């Protein structure tokens, strides 16, 4: 009787190995058979990869985007890359890493940005790093600027009778502490950092959009434009659809029969085709995260700097 079980198990294993081998030998329909890579940049641009669970979806981090762009850049069959953007912006460092990678890829291959619903702040910085920007007519574009949010709750602590004793090694060690007001000198120090970051942002856009610093400053006051308005002020090259973006990329890369391979994809949609959390983020990242996350440490993070 035991021999029957052994033989049955062996036959089952052989069948499984045969099926696996057969599947591996089937002709693939992956990136190697395509000539255009379309990379979805959805939601807030951040260095943190979200944890997936039964009721949550995977949200790529900037490292995932960079990996996808690098993959497309190195594939010899890919002649053009389309960066499809549905993002309100995000963290400064993450944004700069992404923009540098897109710029690097544009030096090797044709890279076109397609702003579908929203390409503002850091997301616009990413778009400006491409060879050509196309946006939907009613997409939200621009919002060029920098902000640092500092959460203070010392007033609430006073009402609750909570006291904090801070022992520090230097005068400025507890700068931006949520448990006390900032001094005028401290505020000027932080403003200088924001101004420095803003100048870097404006310079990047000016260089990549072939605009002067003064021309860029005129449209870099935090204002949000529609796709139509953005074209008029020089922030995008034309308005159109995803199909138009594929046509533009094909013409620029001399592709006669475009075949698109898609990296990533949009998660559940809500306001303007974005998640509710992303919509909140577009008007205030700290507020959006605070309302949408159950993690108290995230909700009460005292400061961060964003594009």
From TrEMBL:
InterPro entries: ClpP/crotonase-like_dom_sf, Pept_S49_SppA, Peptidase_S49, S49_SppA_C. Gene3D superfamilies: 2-enoyl-CoA Hydratase, Chain A, domain 1, 6.20.330.10. GO terms for molecular function: serine-type peptidase activity. One of its GO terms (biological process) is proteolysis. It comes from the Archaea. SUPFAM superfamilies: ClpP/crotonase. Keywords: Hydrolase, Membrane, Protease, Serine protease, Transmembrane, Transmembrane helix. The chain crosses the membrane at residues 6-26. Residues 105-255 form the Peptidase S49 domain. Its EC number is 3.4.21.-. Belongs to the peptidase S49 family. This is Protease-4.
């Amino acid at each position: 009787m035991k021999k029957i079980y052994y033989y049955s198990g062996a036959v089952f294993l052989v069948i499984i190995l045969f099926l696996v081998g057969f599947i591996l030998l089937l002709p693939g329909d992956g990136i190697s058979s395509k000539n255009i890579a379309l990379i979805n940049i959805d939601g807030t641009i951040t260095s943190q990869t979200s944890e997936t669970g039964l009721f949550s979806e995977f949200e790529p981090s900037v490292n995932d985007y960079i990996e996808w762009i690098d993959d497309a850049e190195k594939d010899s069959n890919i002649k053009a890359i389309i960066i499809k953007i549905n993002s309100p912006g995000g963290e400064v460092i993450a944004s700069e890493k992404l923009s540098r990678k897109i710029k690097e890829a544009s030096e090797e291959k044709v890279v076109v940005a397609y702003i579908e619903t929203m390409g503002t702040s850091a997301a616009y910085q990413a778009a400006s790093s491409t060879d050509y920007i196309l946006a939907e007519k009613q997409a939200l574009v621009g919002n060029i600027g920098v902000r640092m949010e500092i959460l203070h709750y010392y007033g609430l602590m006073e009402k609750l009778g909570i006291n904090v004793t801070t022992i520090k090694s230097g005068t400025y060690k507890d700068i931006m502490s949520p448990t006390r007001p900032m001094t005028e000198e401290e505020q000027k120090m932080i403003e200088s950092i924001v101004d420095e970051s803003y100048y870097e942002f404006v310079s990047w856009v000016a260089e990549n959009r072939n605009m002067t610093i003064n021309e860029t400053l005129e449209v870099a006051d935090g204002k949000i434009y529609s796709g139509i308005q953005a074209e008029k002020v020089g922030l995008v090259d034309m308005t159109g659809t995803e199909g138009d973006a594929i046509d533009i990329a094909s013409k620029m890369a001399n592709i006669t029969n475009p075949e698109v391979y898609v990296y990533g994809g949009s998660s559940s949609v809500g306001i303007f085709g974005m998640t509710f959390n992303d919509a909140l983020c577009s008007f205030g990242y700290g507020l959006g995260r605070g309302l949408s996350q159950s993690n108290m440490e995230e909700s009460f993070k005292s400061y961060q700097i964003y594009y």
